[in-house]
Amino acid sequence: MTRIVLHVDMDAFFAAIEERDKPRLKGAPIVVGADPKDGRGRGVVSTANYKAREYGIHSAQPISEAWRLSEAAHGRGLPRAVFIGGNYRRYVEVSEAIMEYLRTEADAIEPASIDEAYIGMKFPISNFSANGACLPARQGSSFGGQFPKNLWEEAEIKAKKIKAHIKKEFGLTCSIGIGPNKLISKIAAGAQKPDGLTIVHAHQAQSFLHPQSVRIFPGVGPKMEEQLHRLHIYTVEDLSKFREDELTQRFGTWGTSLYKKARGIDESPIVEAYETKSTGEQETFEEDSLDAPFLVARLLSLSFAVGEGLRRKNLRGKTISLTVRFANFETMTRARTLSEPVADGKRIAEVALQLFMPFLDARENPQRRRIRLVGVRVEKLTGKK
């Protein structure tokens, strides 16, 4: 069997939903995340639409920095970004509806996140014509070269159908990458955002990857990029010049992964039965605090929110975990495993509170440090009986 993988990636998902649902925001730079508080806000950007990205704003950026970039753009005569707290329940509802639709179009589907999914398409080798008939690449939708007609043309038709349906039924756009494995399809999906369609055949994988930065690979963050730069590795082509043993000597098992990625190799299967292992909520406060009534109230609110999420998904969990982050960013976690799984917000709150109380006195916080963030998570999930 020969496999083709489609990676469906929704474009600026949270911000796109806000723009769709609120006509007054049409065409505006939109940032979904924490309240910027005129540059004094805490927290980060969840999503920025493409207009806001032109200002240098991007996801996971401190919200205060996003606000400053917005003000700088305004100083250049551009409109200020619109900052929105976000309706995460709404985003989940839309995501679930899109994933349900994608399941009707796939031989196999693996949701990768709230706004991404891998779709598997399998074809018998006999689908290749006897004389190797090929389909010339279409400019703007494919990455050069030629493709076996029956396989790749069908995949392109499938992708265009998905894109059209999502735009018509959900009022949103997505970008789709088509490749011989998950790695290539994911990178291809980001090649022509927004609303793009990029096809990379197996024999084109290396020529597609070589010019790109090593940051293109999942798992290569700023720290790993810095280590690679010390070896004068800036592009995938630079990385591909290193032998596997050289990379494993420097990076251990991650070196083997880098060696394969540089060659477009990814043998990971599409995992259809996605199992949620944990779920949780956390909150970064506007001001660091050691005010007991305030902290307890926020902890209880988070606990009940987690319980509501579990009940909505028909799940229960046995382990309740607490996260506390101090003003100096030191983070501590504590957990308790129960004899029976629960989904009741009151029971989750009770255990979370027991875990949290020592952080208000000398047991866990002898220096009386102020608290920046608290989080509640339920783990070891099972379906309700």
Helix content: 25-40%
**CATH topology (level 3) name of the largest domain:** Alpha-Beta Plaits
> So what's the CATH class of the largest domain?
Alpha Beta
End-to-end separation in angstroms reads: 38 Å
Per CATH, which architecture of the largest domain? 2-Layer Sandwich
Number of structural domains: 4
CATH superfamily of the largest domain: Reverse transcriptase/Diguanylate cyclase domain
Gyration radius, in Å: 24 Å
SS-based structural class? alpha+beta
Features:
385 residues, alpha+beta, Alpha-Beta Plaits, MutS, DNA mismatch repair protein, domain I, DNA polymerase, domain 1, 4 domains, 5-stranded mixed sheet, 4-stranded antiparallel sheet
Folded structure, characterized:
This protein has helices at residues 13-21, 50-53, 63-75, 88-103, 149-170, 182-189, 205-209, 222-230, 236-240, 244-251, 253-262, 292-312, 345-356, and strands at residues 2-10, 30-33, 45-48, 82-84, 108-113, 116-123, 134-136, 146-148, 174-179, 197-199, 278-289, 315-326, 331-342, 371-383. Helices cover 37% and strands 25% of the residues. By secondary structure, it is an alpha+beta fold. The model is unreliable at 124-148 (pLDDT under 50). Helix 10 packs across helix 11 and helix 12 runs antiparallel to helix 13. The strands form 4 sheets. It has a 5-stranded mixed beta sheet. Strands 11-14-12-13 form a 4-stranded antiparallel beta sheet, covered by helices on one side. The protein is globular, with a radius of gyration of 24 Å. The protein folds into 4 domains: 2-11 and 89-203, Reverse transcriptase/Diguanylate cyclase domain (Alpha-Beta Plaits, 2-Layer Sandwich), CATH 3.30.70.270; 14-87, MutS, DNA mismatch repair protein, domain I, CATH 3.40.1170; 210-262, DNA polymerase, domain 1 (Orthogonal Bundle), CATH 1.10.150; 278-383, DNA polymerase, Y-family, little finger domain (Dna Ligase, domain 1, 2-Layer Sandwich), CATH 3.30.1490. The protein has 13 helices and 14 strands. The longest helix is centred in the middle third of the chain and has 22 residues, at 149-170. A hairpin with a 4-residue loop joins strand 12 and strand 13.
